[in-house]
Design brief:
The chain is mainly beta and about 180 residues long. The protein has helices at about 20-25, 60-65, 160-165; strands at about 5, 10, 45-50, 70, 80-85, 90-100, 105-110, 120-125, 130-140, 145-150, 175-180. It has two domains: about 5-85, Beta-grasp domain (Ubiquitin-like (UB roll), Roll); about 90-180, Translation factors (Elongation Factor Tu (Ef-tu), domain 3, Beta Barrel), CATH 2.40.30. The strands form two sheets. It has a six-stranded antiparallel β-barrel. Strands 2-1-5-3-4 form a five-stranded mixed sheet.
Length: about 180
């Protein structure tokens, strides 16, 4: 049985048990929500051991490079050490999509974790379709869990901008990344 090191404790997984279920069964404080790999709430970072490929199939190339995995999509066959992801990248939900003009929309994204960003700083937004683009923050709540951006659509503009203007809906999941 593989041993998992997470938040200062050791956990044993049963044979064929997925990582998230094994951690929760043993009362680990692991984040989760949808259990389907869509919301990315259960994202963890591997600090030692081999990263199972299926655990990264729904992640962006940037997340893969950082060693992130989705606990709900992971079956472990060997020992791993894990940490929570850094807060320069968090899952979010599109909570508001407001048309300003035919070429501009204002959006609000709610994050599950506080996201340390200021008005004017750039963030990268990544859709479930792995489209991404960077925009300046135009507003943020006091608790740093709701961010606002204005997105302009232009001819030949980014695929993300086209997606947000034509196919995005309130409730869509995004990944929010702080630009370094």
């Amino acid at each position: 049985m593989p041993e998992i090191q997470f938040q200062g404790s050791s956990y044993s997984l049963d044979e064929n048990e997925n990582l998230l279920d094994g951690l929760l069964r043993q009362h680990a404080r692991a984040p989760y929500s949808c259990r389907a790999g869509v919301c990315h709430s259960c994202m963890l970072r591997v600090t030692a051991g081999s990263v199972p490929a299926e655990a990264q199939s729904l992640l962006t190339p940037e997340q893969v490079k950082k060693g992130y995995i989705l606990a709900c999509q992971t079956r472990i066959t060997e020992d791993l050490s894990l940490t929570l992801p850094t807060r320069d990248e968090v899952p979010g939900i599109l909570t508001e999509l407001k048309t300003i003009s035919s070429t501009e929309v204002s959006i609000k994204v709610s994050t599950r974790l506080p996201f340390d960003v200021s008005i004017g700083e750039y963030i990268t937004l990544v859709s479930d379709e792995r489209l991404e683009a960077s925009y300046p923050v135009t507003g943020c709540s006091e608790d740093l869990q709701t961010l606002a951006c204005s997105i302009t659509r232009s001819a030949g503009g980014s695929p993300f901008s086209a997606w947000i203007h034509s196919r995005a809906r309130t409730g869509d999941h995004l990944i929010v990344i702080k630009k370094g």
